[in-house]
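Quick bug: Acyltransferase output formatted oddly.
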Amino acid sequence: MPKRKNTFSSWRRGLAQRAVHAAWSWVQRTGSVTAEHPAGFRFGAMGTGTRLAFPLGTVFGEPWIHVGAHCIIGEQVTLTAGLMPDLDLGPEPILRLGDGVVLGRGSHVIADTTVTIGSDCYFGPYVYITSTNHSYDDPHEPIGRQWPRMEPVEIGPGCWIGTGAVILPGARIGRNVVVAAGAVVRGTVPDHAVVAGAPARVVRRWTPDGGWQPPLRTPAPVPIPKDATPEQLRALSALDEEETARPAALDAEQAARLARLEPEG
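Here's what came back:
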């Protein structure tokens, strides 16, 4: 027997859901870290317009972390400077993020020695960047007890790092580099390259003389004109929706005719 729908219970449930979502939105806004937020004062530097989304990941060594302006740090992102909290790391910053950096949800940036990320770099979710790696020189000692190796990491401006990529100690990534999802990067990557695989290898590169080699398989997208108004963009969006809906309507009409075995026309 189907249960009777209790209108009053449904109304209460909907009200409770709205209250929970409103409360969680307030918690996210209040818990996020900005340059004006008290937690932002702990950082060595934090530019205007930057926000660390709540809930935060593990964050320590803030006095040695410098974050540029207009950065977006997603939820559960780990930012650490030093091997552990409450160490004196000297006068210079250890972890530097340039202006306009976007770190996707669940990413980790572990800076036991210097890690530098250039401006306008975009990282997908769950990217792992570390300047430290375990050593295993002594075959008789547990690996976790052996002193780790540390090498600086540098990522040039304008890069795109795909989901789940791993950037290992000593990596030097050039300007406007694409790192494919799941790639494991070590060593030097030249400017204007696309790397993929584990370990990552260059699969495409741009040079002034030869352009992209191998050539791109799709045409470049047409950018939005700088002088486009919001009204024009909304009108263009409406046209796109009409073009998308029109074939769907025709397909539905054709399916109905086939179902009735009626000839077209």
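Actually, after a second look the formatting is fine. Confidence is low (pLDDT under 50) at residues 261-265. Closing.
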